[in-house]
Write a structure and sequence with these properties.
By secondary structure, the protein is mainly alpha-helical. The chain is built from 16 helices and five strands. This is Transmembrane protein 268.
Length: about 350
Amino acid sequence: MEQRNQEAEVEVQSRAKKAESVTNNNQPRWSNGQCVVVMPSCSTFSPSFDLSSCRAKLAQDGFQIPASDMEIPLKTALDVPSVKRYLVFNSRLFHLIMAPILYVVLWCAVFSTLHLYISVSDYWVLCLSVSLVSILLTTAIIFMLHHSNKQINVNVDVRLVQVNERMVKHKLLVGVADWVENCTGNMQLFFVYWDMSRCLKTLTETLEELDFVTPDAQNKLRSRMSHLILVSEDLPEESESGGSDVEAESDENRPLLHDVDCSTSSHQRREPTVTSSFSLAPDASLPAQVKAHRLLMTYSAAYVKLLVSKRLSGPSHHRMRLRRNHCSVSPVCLCQYIKKKVLQ
């Protein structure tokens, strides 16, 4: 009996420890860069994700996230027809399908052009030359498309900034990545554990040093982020009446991307709109810590995309990697990635 009682006590203690680890948001279990949940797309040609099931899986791992911090912003960012079309046309599966079609089109175009202006006695020489030129052009175009996927994407990565601004409170970052496996497209939504405190501290110190050493650091920052410009449409009445309120609002407390209500009535769509654009580069008047936070949020989704697809390259020296890296599964952490892309 005593042995059974001891076993029951041990079982109760183990359950209590498990419950305690869940309530503490699984802090000991996870380290920066570890993938918590992977949610595949429900359809290849109309990408969508089962967010309710995804939130349930996160809850099983101890991440209690309300719908207002996850499902609603994710639907606003990704559940848009134009974004879905972009995800399909920019996917690796579409590039794989496009490559032979592009080769045939280029071959016909080059052959018809050369055949008109160049007379060749040996027909096979002309065909071989056209084939080589078409292969080179096709390879160059596919390489450029592949290289563009390694950069931050305004249509997808920047739209996820709003999501990561909320998910980072729960020590999670979100990103979308895809690849081809067995001639099948694999588009997935990734939830990666990330404690932002160390990266925020390191990047803040770096920005403070740059402001002190090089006065033109802000100009370099703006030039590197000059392509990250968002265009929004507002009603004229709202833009005029809300102008003073926007100016009065502090830049430090303003979110990087404002929430936009996608459900507009038909009579509102017919009203004239005012187009405004703004850059994602942080303003020079902001404190270094606020700048660092905005940079981390801006590049968070792009970093997750490269992290899960293993396309991050960093220093090969093991000691240097351990000394400055805040991620155990990648050679480059988020703050190092931003330093390399924006600040160097």
